[in-house]
Amino acid sequence: MPVDAAEALAAAPRVREIAWEHKDVQLYHLGIGAGLPATDPRELRYTLESRLHVLPSFATVAGAGAPGVIGALSAPGVDVDLAHVLHGGQRLRLHRPVPARGRASAASRVVAVYDKGTAAVLVLRTEVTDADGPLWTDEAEVFVRGEGGWGGERGPSGRPSPPPAGPPDHVVERTLREDQALLYRLSGDANPLHADPEFAVRAGFERPVLHGLCTYGATLKAVVDTLLDGEVTRVREYRTKFTGVVYPGETLRLRMWSPVRSGEMREARVAVSVVERGDASVLADTVVRYA
């Protein structure tokens, strides 16, 4: 069986050393659409090293290694065709603000394997720690089409919840560059689905699609800019489900509902759609928790 749940879950964590500096952060920020207008002080905090604020979602590419969705496919017990893989969701928990440069140890392992009947779902967790202790934890949820049906645990429902009742408190639109995916992939995700037209067609798409984690980062930036006035260090957790694809050059419409208190934290809820395709949903169950 291409997905051996028992072997994947029993495998020891794979540990690698990662390092990054301010140029990696700047490239990531440009890859998710920062820097427009180029002289806007609110954008310079993402692009100019002398005043650099690190958006927490940079954690998903720090070290320029394979993203979680790819890392899960190289785990023991997993041998599947990349063209059958979809990124289902992403969760990030910050233990401390992400520094503009650093060295850390990243330990990754598959912590769950679910049988959805027509697909397998893998959850890859990565714990990142530096000399001062834990930095962040992220989890990638990976759907592998055609690999379910072995009678395993189904796991939680993958159906997205409806957005909050009532109109959003903020609506923001962000137009993506035609070369957004080509720029974003320089941060480490070289999956040909995002650049090679022939591979994209084989995977069932009309042309290369934007990385889900690019949409993920662009969304967090919009929330931080709109609700937190760019105060990136206030973010504690960020999670979403990927519900549709985005093509480079399209316009994201982000609907934000004002945060509600959850203990000592606040939770902002967000729904993201594509304007040009009748508000087709691309991110759902999106929550940003912050201090």
Give structural notes.
The protein is α+β, with helices and mostly antiparallel strands and 291 residues long. The protein contains 7 helices and 10 strands. A 10-stranded antiparallel sheet has the order 1-3-4-5-2-7-10-9-8-6. β9 (265-274) and β10 (280-290) form a beta hairpin. The chain starts with a helix and ends with a strand. The mean pLDDT is 93.
How would you describe the shape?
Answer: globular
Q: Which structural class matches the secondary elements? A: alpha+beta
Percentage of residues in helical conformation: 10-25%
Largest sheet: 10 strands, antiparallel
Spatial ordering of strands, largest sheet: 1-3-4-5-2-7-10-9-8-6
**How many angstroms does the end-to-end distance come to?**
45 Å
Unreliable spans are: none
Query: Can you count the beta strands?
Result: 10
Estimate the mean pLDDT confidence. Answer: 93
Compressed to H and E, one letter per element, the order equals HEHHHEEEEEHHHEEEE
Beta percentage is 35-45%
Number of helices: 7
Rg, alpha carbons: 18 Å
